[in-house]
Amino acid sequence: MSTSKVTTSQQIEYVVLKRQKNFDYIRRVHEGRVHWLNVVLITQEDITKIHDPNVLAKRAEQWFYLGVSLAKILDLPNGAYTVRAFSQLLEEYEYHFANAAVQGFKFMMTKAQAPPTFHDASSTDPVKPIIYRSGKTPVYEYLTTPNVPFRLDYFQVVFSLCDILSLVYSKFMDATCAVPSISEAIIKIDAKVKHNLVSILSREITSLALSILKQQFGQMHSMFAASGMSEEEFLTLFSDDLNANVAETLADREAVQAGAGKLSIVDDDEDV
């Protein structure tokens, strides 16, 4: 394998592993099993309180369609074939849920033909997803929008979508992806996944966590006021323990750095 392919493979591996960690973390936060940024434990009740039920219902439906459509891609061969299919799916997904103005603009660039029935997985041509149409009706190659006669459980949709996205990302870890055209498509796919899912949830959960922290600090302030004890006085009660813990931590850090220094692998950014 050439050096360029090794480098490309490493880049793809980094993107895949990073995003899979994001999916797993988002899932566990929504399950209420982990503190957001190791600070605030957020419950499902906290999340539902900050949203209009109709907003969550609409989002759940959109992500459900994405998850159902991704399920079909899991049956495709790993590597370039999956990348081309995922890229096309995201193009169709964004078109379908865009506002009328965006749809109208994109419709002018649609191709008046049915989607192709065969893709050459060995092709090194750039990946260029496009919306196909029959007359004035868009024709989707991968997006599936079945009728859902009941309200979906928002959290179950988030769990399932994170799981299936992680599986699809695993299919990028293939030798056929280690070419510029396919690796560039993976980067674009990842940017769209981040925009349509990861960033949305991250911003909302971070905002919610800050709100909960402010509420908790407010409660602490009220508690100190009621007890007649200032926060500074409260902290001095434990100053000896705090100083002892700090001293112990610094001693441990010096010991670790001394040992690591002998091996010339000291990491100045590493937390002890």
Note down, in words, how this protein is organized.
It is a single chain. The chain has 272 residues and is mainly alpha-helical. Helix content is 65%, strand content 4%. The chain has 9 helices and 4 strands. It has helices at residues 3-31, 44-49, 53-73, 80-96, 100-107, 154-170, 180-227, 231-236, 239-262, and strands at 35-36, 40-41, 132-134, 137-139. The protein has a two-stranded antiparallel ribbon. The protein has a two-stranded antiparallel sheet with strand order 3-4. 20% of the residues are buried. Mean pLDDT is 82; it is low at 255-272.
Average per-residue pLDDT, rounded, comes to 82
General form: elongated
How many helices? 9
Low-confidence stretches: 255-272
Order of helices and strands: HEEHHHHEEHHHH
The number of E-state strands comes to: 4
Helix proportion range: 55-70%
**Cα separation of the termini:** 39 Å
Major β-sheet, in short?
2 strands, antiparallel
Which secondary-structure class do the elements indicate? mainly alpha
Strand content: under 5%
Arrangement of strands in the largest sheet: 1-2
Radius of gyration: 25 Å
